[in-house]
Design brief:
10 helices; 2 domains; disordered C terminus; alpha/beta; VC0802-like; 15 strands; Rossmann fold; 8-stranded mixed beta sheet; single chain
Length: 385
Protein backbone atom coordinates (compact mmCIF):
# COMPACT_ATOMS: atom_id res chain seq x y z
CA UNK A 1 0.00 0.00 0.00
CA UNK A 2 1.16 3.54 -0.72
CA UNK A 3 1.45 6.36 1.78
CA UNK A 4 -1.80 8.09 2.64
CA UNK A 5 -2.15 11.83 2.19
CA UNK A 6 -4.86 14.45 2.48
CA UNK A 7 -7.09 15.22 -0.51
CA UNK A 8 -9.94 17.63 -1.13
CA UNK A 9 -12.94 16.79 -3.29
CA UNK A 10 -14.82 19.82 -4.61
CA UNK A 11 -18.56 19.59 -5.20
CA UNK A 12 -21.72 21.65 -5.76
CA UNK A 13 -23.78 23.40 -3.09
CA UNK A 14 -25.93 20.92 -1.18
CA UNK A 15 -24.04 17.83 -2.35
CA UNK A 16 -21.54 17.65 0.53
CA UNK A 17 -23.38 14.83 2.35
CA UNK A 18 -23.73 12.85 -0.88
CA UNK A 19 -20.03 13.16 -1.68
CA UNK A 20 -18.99 12.26 1.86
CA UNK A 21 -21.14 9.12 1.64
CA UNK A 22 -19.63 8.21 -1.73
CA UNK A 23 -16.11 8.59 -0.36
CA UNK A 24 -17.01 6.54 2.71
CA UNK A 25 -18.31 3.68 0.56
CA UNK A 26 -15.16 3.79 -1.56
CA UNK A 27 -13.00 3.46 1.55
CA UNK A 28 -11.73 6.99 2.24
CA UNK A 29 -10.26 7.80 5.66
CA UNK A 30 -10.74 10.81 7.97
CA UNK A 31 -13.65 12.30 6.00
CA UNK A 32 -14.61 15.86 6.90
CA UNK A 33 -17.32 17.94 5.24
CA UNK A 34 -16.86 21.62 4.44
CA UNK A 35 -18.60 24.14 2.21
CA UNK A 36 -18.84 22.73 -1.32
CA UNK A 37 -15.98 20.36 -0.46
CA UNK A 38 -15.09 17.22 1.45
CA UNK A 39 -11.58 16.48 2.75
CA UNK A 40 -10.37 12.90 3.17
CA UNK A 41 -7.25 10.74 3.17
CA UNK A 42 -6.06 7.94 0.93
CA UNK A 43 -3.13 6.82 -1.19
CA UNK A 44 -2.39 7.24 -4.90
CA UNK A 45 -4.60 4.29 -5.78
CA UNK A 46 -7.48 5.84 -3.88
CA UNK A 47 -6.92 9.14 -5.69
CA UNK A 48 -7.32 7.26 -8.98
CA UNK A 49 -10.43 5.52 -7.62
CA UNK A 50 -12.03 8.76 -6.40
CA UNK A 51 -11.56 10.40 -9.80
CA UNK A 52 -13.01 7.38 -11.60
CA UNK A 53 -15.92 6.62 -9.31
CA UNK A 54 -17.19 9.74 -7.52
CA UNK A 55 -20.45 10.87 -9.11
CA UNK A 56 -20.77 14.16 -7.22
CA UNK A 57 -17.14 15.39 -7.24
CA UNK A 58 -16.04 18.22 -9.54
CA UNK A 59 -12.31 18.04 -8.70
CA UNK A 60 -9.98 15.94 -6.60
CA UNK A 61 -7.14 18.13 -5.27
CA UNK A 62 -3.93 17.06 -3.54
CA UNK A 63 -2.71 19.81 -1.16
CA UNK A 64 1.09 20.13 -1.10
CA UNK A 65 1.74 23.38 0.81
CA UNK A 66 -0.13 25.75 3.13
CA UNK A 67 1.13 29.04 4.52
CA UNK A 68 0.01 32.45 5.70
CA UNK A 69 0.37 35.34 3.30
CA UNK A 70 -0.19 39.06 3.80
CA UNK A 71 0.49 40.54 0.36
CA UNK A 72 1.54 39.75 -3.22
CA UNK A 73 5.25 39.98 -2.42
CA UNK A 74 5.00 37.35 0.30
CA UNK A 75 2.86 35.18 -2.01
CA UNK A 76 5.54 35.38 -4.70
CA UNK A 77 8.37 34.55 -2.26
CA UNK A 78 6.64 31.58 -0.64
CA UNK A 79 5.60 30.10 -3.99
CA UNK A 80 9.17 30.66 -5.28
CA UNK A 81 10.65 28.84 -2.27
CA UNK A 82 8.77 25.60 -3.08
CA UNK A 83 10.98 23.01 -4.82
CA UNK A 84 8.91 22.65 -7.97
CA UNK A 85 11.34 20.12 -9.45
CA UNK A 86 9.54 17.55 -7.26
CA UNK A 87 6.46 17.98 -9.44
CA UNK A 88 7.62 18.98 -12.91
CA UNK A 89 10.65 20.00 -14.99
CA UNK A 90 11.42 23.07 -17.05
CA UNK A 91 10.44 21.32 -20.29
CA UNK A 92 6.89 20.68 -19.10
CA UNK A 93 3.85 22.95 -19.22
CA UNK A 94 1.85 24.51 -16.44
CA UNK A 95 -1.61 25.94 -15.75
CA UNK A 96 -2.86 27.65 -12.60
CA UNK A 97 -6.41 28.09 -11.27
CA UNK A 98 -6.97 30.43 -8.34
CA UNK A 99 -9.87 31.23 -6.03
CA UNK A 100 -9.74 34.07 -3.52
CA UNK A 101 -11.89 35.06 -0.52
CA UNK A 102 -9.80 37.83 1.02
CA UNK A 103 -9.66 41.56 1.62
CA UNK A 104 -5.96 41.57 0.70
CA UNK A 105 -6.35 39.51 -2.48
CA UNK A 106 -9.37 40.43 -4.56
CA UNK A 107 -8.46 39.24 -8.08
CA UNK A 108 -8.04 35.52 -8.69
CA UNK A 109 -6.39 36.06 -12.08
CA UNK A 110 -3.74 38.30 -10.51
CA UNK A 111 -3.01 35.65 -7.87
CA UNK A 112 -2.65 33.06 -10.64
CA UNK A 113 -0.29 35.42 -12.53
CA UNK A 114 1.94 36.03 -9.48
CA UNK A 115 2.05 32.28 -8.82
CA UNK A 116 3.06 31.63 -12.42
CA UNK A 117 5.78 34.31 -12.22
CA UNK A 118 7.26 32.77 -9.07
CA UNK A 119 7.36 29.24 -10.51
CA UNK A 120 8.85 30.14 -13.89
CA UNK A 121 11.37 32.52 -12.27
CA UNK A 122 12.58 29.73 -9.97
CA UNK A 123 13.08 27.36 -12.89
CA UNK A 124 14.85 30.06 -14.92
CA UNK A 125 17.15 30.91 -11.99
CA UNK A 126 17.94 27.23 -11.33
CA UNK A 127 18.16 25.85 -14.88
CA UNK A 128 18.32 28.77 -17.27
CA UNK A 129 15.06 27.59 -18.86
CA UNK A 130 11.45 28.25 -17.89
CA UNK A 131 8.35 26.07 -18.33
CA UNK A 132 5.59 27.32 -20.62
CA UNK A 133 1.94 27.91 -19.84
CA UNK A 134 -0.70 25.67 -21.46
CA UNK A 135 -4.22 26.35 -20.22
CA UNK A 136 -5.78 23.59 -22.35
CA UNK A 137 -3.69 20.49 -21.65
CA UNK A 138 -0.86 21.24 -19.21
CA UNK A 139 1.51 18.68 -17.74
CA UNK A 140 0.77 20.10 -14.29
CA UNK A 141 -2.34 21.96 -13.18
CA UNK A 142 -2.20 23.82 -9.86
CA UNK A 143 -4.96 25.16 -7.66
CA UNK A 144 -4.30 28.19 -5.43
CA UNK A 145 -6.91 28.87 -2.75
CA UNK A 146 -6.62 32.00 -0.60
CA UNK A 147 -9.00 32.58 2.30
CA UNK A 148 -8.18 35.82 4.12
CA UNK A 149 -4.46 35.35 4.97
CA UNK A 150 -4.30 31.59 4.46
CA UNK A 151 -3.03 30.15 1.18
CA UNK A 152 -3.36 26.50 0.12
CA UNK A 153 -1.41 25.18 -2.85
CA UNK A 154 -2.73 21.96 -4.39
CA UNK A 155 -2.09 19.75 -7.36
CA UNK A 156 -5.23 19.27 -9.43
CA UNK A 157 -5.43 15.51 -10.04
CA UNK A 158 -8.53 15.71 -12.21
CA UNK A 159 -7.74 18.32 -14.86
CA UNK A 160 -10.94 19.31 -16.62
CA UNK A 161 -13.98 19.31 -14.32
CA UNK A 162 -15.19 15.81 -13.50
CA UNK A 163 -18.62 16.66 -14.85
CA UNK A 164 -17.02 16.14 -18.26
CA UNK A 165 -17.63 12.41 -18.20
CA UNK A 166 -16.67 11.81 -21.82
CA UNK A 167 -19.96 10.48 -23.18
CA UNK A 168 -21.75 13.73 -24.00
CA UNK A 169 -20.86 14.95 -27.48
CA UNK A 170 -24.27 16.38 -28.39
CA UNK A 171 -26.16 18.94 -26.29
CA UNK A 172 -29.28 21.09 -26.47
CA UNK A 173 -30.09 24.53 -25.07
CA UNK A 174 -28.81 24.84 -21.45
CA UNK A 175 -27.90 21.18 -20.91
CA UNK A 176 -27.82 19.99 -17.31
CA UNK A 177 -24.38 19.43 -15.78
CA UNK A 178 -23.55 15.72 -15.30
CA UNK A 179 -22.51 16.16 -11.65
CA UNK A 180 -25.70 18.11 -10.99
CA UNK A 181 -27.77 15.38 -12.66
CA UNK A 182 -26.11 12.65 -10.59
CA UNK A 183 -26.57 14.63 -7.38
CA UNK A 184 -30.26 15.26 -8.08
CA UNK A 185 -30.78 11.56 -8.70
CA UNK A 186 -29.06 10.63 -5.44
CA UNK A 187 -31.00 13.29 -3.53
CA UNK A 188 -34.20 11.82 -4.97
CA UNK A 189 -33.29 8.42 -3.54
CA UNK A 190 -32.85 6.75 -6.92
CA UNK A 191 -31.17 3.38 -6.41
CA UNK A 192 -32.18 1.43 -9.51
CA UNK A 193 -34.85 -0.66 -7.79
CA UNK A 194 -37.82 0.30 -9.98
CA UNK A 195 -38.68 1.71 -13.41
CA UNK A 196 -37.37 5.20 -14.25
CA UNK A 197 -38.59 7.99 -16.52
CA UNK A 198 -37.27 11.37 -17.60
CA UNK A 199 -40.22 12.79 -19.56
CA UNK A 200 -38.33 15.86 -20.86
CA UNK A 201 -34.95 14.27 -21.38
CA UNK A 202 -33.17 16.82 -23.61
CA UNK A 203 -29.71 15.47 -24.42
CA UNK A 204 -30.18 12.49 -22.09
CA UNK A 205 -27.87 13.41 -19.20
CA UNK A 206 -30.27 12.42 -16.42
CA UNK A 207 -30.99 9.12 -18.19
CA UNK A 208 -27.31 8.22 -18.53
CA UNK A 209 -26.52 9.15 -14.93
CA UNK A 210 -29.57 7.17 -13.74
CA UNK A 211 -28.38 4.08 -15.61
CA UNK A 212 -24.84 4.43 -14.25
CA UNK A 213 -26.17 4.65 -10.69
CA UNK A 214 -28.53 1.69 -11.24
CA UNK A 215 -25.70 -0.47 -12.63
CA UNK A 216 -23.01 0.87 -10.28
CA UNK A 217 -20.88 1.93 -13.24
CA UNK A 218 -17.96 4.26 -12.36
CA UNK A 219 -19.04 7.80 -13.23
CA UNK A 220 -15.94 8.69 -15.23
CA UNK A 221 -15.20 5.37 -16.91
CA UNK A 222 -15.70 6.99 -20.35
CA UNK A 223 -13.41 9.94 -19.64
CA UNK A 224 -10.41 10.25 -21.94
CA UNK A 225 -7.83 11.48 -19.41
CA UNK A 226 -7.12 12.72 -15.91
CA UNK A 227 -4.44 15.23 -14.96
CA UNK A 228 -2.62 12.73 -12.73
CA UNK A 229 -1.68 10.72 -15.84
CA UNK A 230 1.01 13.34 -16.55
CA UNK A 231 2.46 13.37 -13.04
CA UNK A 232 5.97 12.12 -12.32
CA UNK A 233 4.63 9.30 -10.09
CA UNK A 234 1.92 8.14 -12.53
CA UNK A 235 1.40 4.37 -12.19
CA UNK A 236 -0.45 3.10 -15.27
CA UNK A 237 -0.57 -0.51 -13.99
CA UNK A 238 -2.12 0.57 -10.68
CA UNK A 239 -4.68 2.69 -12.54
CA UNK A 240 -5.70 -0.28 -14.71
CA UNK A 241 -6.00 -2.46 -11.62
CA UNK A 242 -8.22 0.12 -9.88
CA UNK A 243 -10.38 0.55 -12.99
CA UNK A 244 -10.86 -3.18 -13.51
CA UNK A 245 -11.69 -3.69 -9.83
CA UNK A 246 -14.39 -1.02 -10.05
CA UNK A 247 -15.83 -2.56 -13.22
CA UNK A 248 -16.12 -5.93 -11.49
CA UNK A 249 -18.51 -4.30 -9.00
CA UNK A 250 -21.09 -3.31 -11.63
CA UNK A 251 -24.51 -4.93 -11.23
CA UNK A 252 -27.40 -6.04 -13.38
CA UNK A 253 -30.48 -3.84 -13.78
CA UNK A 254 -33.86 -5.54 -14.16
CA UNK A 255 -36.17 -2.58 -14.70
CA UNK A 256 -36.70 -0.02 -17.48
CA UNK A 257 -35.19 3.43 -18.00
CA UNK A 258 -37.14 5.59 -20.44
CA UNK A 259 -36.83 9.09 -21.81
CA UNK A 260 -39.30 11.26 -23.74
CA UNK A 261 -38.78 14.49 -25.56
CA UNK A 262 -41.09 16.33 -27.90
CA UNK A 263 -38.21 17.58 -30.04
CA UNK A 264 -36.87 15.19 -32.68
CA UNK A 265 -33.34 16.65 -32.61
CA UNK A 266 -33.18 16.32 -28.82
CA UNK A 267 -34.12 12.65 -29.14
CA UNK A 268 -31.36 12.13 -31.70
CA UNK A 269 -28.76 13.81 -29.53
CA UNK A 270 -29.87 11.88 -26.45
CA UNK A 271 -29.60 8.57 -28.32
CA UNK A 272 -26.10 9.52 -29.49
CA UNK A 273 -25.00 10.25 -25.93
CA UNK A 274 -26.50 7.02 -24.63
CA UNK A 275 -24.62 5.15 -27.35
CA UNK A 276 -21.38 6.94 -26.40
CA UNK A 277 -21.90 5.80 -22.80
CA UNK A 278 -22.44 2.18 -23.97
CA UNK A 279 -25.83 2.13 -22.24
CA UNK A 280 -28.15 1.56 -25.20
CA UNK A 281 -29.18 -1.85 -23.73
CA UNK A 282 -30.60 -0.12 -20.66
CA UNK A 283 -32.15 3.12 -21.93
CA UNK A 284 -35.06 3.58 -24.34
CA UNK A 285 -35.71 7.07 -25.75
CA UNK A 286 -38.58 8.14 -27.97
CA UNK A 287 -40.15 11.27 -29.39
CA UNK A 288 -43.23 11.78 -27.25
CA UNK A 289 -45.21 14.61 -25.71
CA UNK A 290 -45.24 14.04 -21.95
CA UNK A 291 -48.56 15.88 -21.70
CA UNK A 292 -50.17 13.29 -24.00
CA UNK A 293 -48.57 10.33 -22.25
CA UNK A 294 -49.60 8.05 -19.42
CA UNK A 295 -47.94 5.54 -17.14
CA UNK A 296 -47.38 2.28 -18.97
CA UNK A 297 -47.77 -0.15 -16.05
CA UNK A 298 -49.04 -0.31 -12.48
CA UNK A 299 -45.51 -0.90 -11.14
CA UNK A 300 -43.73 1.78 -9.07
CA UNK A 301 -42.16 4.51 -11.19
CA UNK A 302 -39.43 7.02 -10.31
CA UNK A 303 -39.44 10.25 -12.34
CA UNK A 304 -36.67 12.88 -12.35
CA UNK A 305 -36.75 15.70 -14.89
CA UNK A 306 -35.50 19.17 -15.69
CA UNK A 307 -38.34 20.97 -17.48
CA UNK A 308 -37.63 24.07 -19.56
CA UNK A 309 -38.44 27.44 -18.07
CA UNK A 310 -38.71 30.90 -19.52
CA UNK A 311 -35.08 31.88 -18.96
CA UNK A 312 -34.02 29.19 -21.42
CA UNK A 313 -36.79 28.77 -23.95
CA UNK A 314 -39.97 30.56 -24.97
CA UNK A 315 -42.85 28.86 -23.16
CA UNK A 316 -46.08 30.03 -21.58
CA UNK A 317 -45.00 29.44 -17.99
CA UNK A 318 -48.41 29.30 -16.31
CA UNK A 319 -49.96 26.86 -18.77
CA UNK A 320 -46.80 24.73 -19.03
CA UNK A 321 -46.47 24.14 -15.30
CA UNK A 322 -50.22 23.60 -14.93
CA UNK A 323 -49.92 20.89 -17.59
CA UNK A 324 -47.08 19.25 -15.65
CA UNK A 325 -49.26 19.04 -12.54
CA UNK A 326 -52.33 17.82 -14.42
CA UNK A 327 -50.39 15.15 -16.29
CA UNK A 328 -48.78 13.80 -13.14
CA UNK A 329 -52.10 13.81 -11.28
CA UNK A 330 -54.22 12.25 -14.00
CA UNK A 331 -51.81 9.94 -15.81
CA UNK A 332 -49.04 8.87 -13.42
CA UNK A 333 -50.49 7.18 -10.31
CA UNK A 334 -48.05 5.24 -8.13
CA UNK A 335 -45.19 7.56 -9.00
CA UNK A 336 -42.57 9.54 -7.13
CA UNK A 337 -41.91 12.55 -9.38
CA UNK A 338 -38.94 14.84 -8.79
CA UNK A 339 -38.47 18.05 -10.74
CA UNK A 340 -35.78 20.75 -10.70
CA UNK A 341 -36.66 24.27 -11.75
CA UNK A 342 -34.88 27.58 -11.65
CA UNK A 343 -38.21 29.38 -12.01
CA UNK A 344 -39.34 29.46 -8.39
CA UNK A 345 -42.52 31.38 -9.23
CA UNK A 346 -43.58 28.69 -11.69
CA UNK A 347 -43.91 26.05 -8.96
CA UNK A 348 -47.16 27.54 -7.68
CA UNK A 349 -48.79 26.76 -11.05
CA UNK A 350 -48.14 23.01 -10.78
CA UNK A 351 -51.16 22.79 -8.48
CA UNK A 352 -49.68 19.95 -6.40
CA UNK A 353 -48.24 20.17 -2.92
CA UNK A 354 -44.61 19.03 -2.90
CA UNK A 355 -43.69 16.62 -0.12
CA UNK A 356 -40.09 17.86 -0.25
CA UNK A 357 -38.23 20.96 -1.43
CA UNK A 358 -34.45 21.01 -1.66
CA UNK A 359 -32.42 24.12 -2.47
CA UNK A 360 -29.83 23.51 -5.20
CA UNK A 361 -28.05 25.58 -7.83
CA UNK A 362 -28.14 25.06 -11.58
CA UNK A 363 -24.96 26.91 -12.45
CA UNK A 364 -25.27 30.31 -10.78
CA UNK A 365 -29.07 30.10 -10.73
CA UNK A 366 -30.80 29.22 -7.47
CA UNK A 367 -33.21 26.36 -8.06
CA UNK A 368 -35.44 23.89 -6.22
CA UNK A 369 -35.63 20.13 -6.46
CA UNK A 370 -39.19 19.25 -5.53
CA UNK A 371 -40.91 15.92 -4.95
CA UNK A 372 -44.52 15.10 -5.82
CA UNK A 373 -45.93 11.82 -4.52
CA UNK A 374 -48.64 10.54 -6.85
CA UNK A 375 -50.65 7.80 -5.16
CA UNK A 376 -52.65 5.11 -6.93
CA UNK A 377 -55.76 5.98 -4.92
CA UNK A 378 -56.32 8.82 -2.50
CA UNK A 379 -53.67 9.46 0.14
CA UNK A 380 -56.20 8.61 2.83
CA UNK A 381 -56.98 5.29 1.18
CA UNK A 382 -53.28 4.47 0.86
CA UNK A 383 -52.83 4.95 4.59
CA UNK A 384 -55.45 2.25 5.30
CA UNK A 385 -53.74 -0.39 3.12
Amino acid sequence: MGTNFKMIAKTLFGFEDLLAEELHKLGALHIQKGQRMVSFEGDNGFMYKANLACKTAIKILKPIHSFSVKDEHELYKKIYDIDWSNYMNEQQTLAIDATVFSEQFTHAKYVALKTKDAIVDRFRDKTGTRPNIDVESPDLRLNIHIHENSCDVSLDSSGASLHQRGYKTATNIAPINEVLAAGLLLLSGWDGQCDFLDPMCGSGTILVEAAMIACNIPANINRKEFAFEKWNDWDADLFELIKNTLLKKTREFHFSIQGFDIDFMAVRKAKDNVLNANLEDYIKIEKKDFFASEKESDKPLHIVFNPPYDERIGIHTTRFYEDIGNTLKQSYPGTNAWMITGNLEALKYVGLKPSRKIKVYNGALEARLVKYEMYSGSRKTKGLL
